[in-house]
Amino acid sequence: MSRWFFVGIAVSCAAAGLIVINQHSSRENRLRRECERRGWKLQRRSDPRGTYQIVVPNTDIVVIGDGFAMDLERIEDFLQSDAASELLTETRRLR
Length: 95
What we know:
95 residues, 3 strands, globular
């Protein structure tokens, strides 16, 4: 096999990695906007694990994910749940 074959594989793998990263960051941005619409803030831990929590801005009261215990899938599930609607009513009183 020629070395160009291996270079092509490396480029393809790198491109696939970029696509996955872009999908992850666009999902994170979408969930961040959803939190902002509800008056909350999505915070991300700055380590490679990429865990999250939702807080009430200016109070740092944790809505869900205390200690950055949530991944994006669980954040998304929470935002679509009835519990999020109930907590939204409660946290509006705190502001």
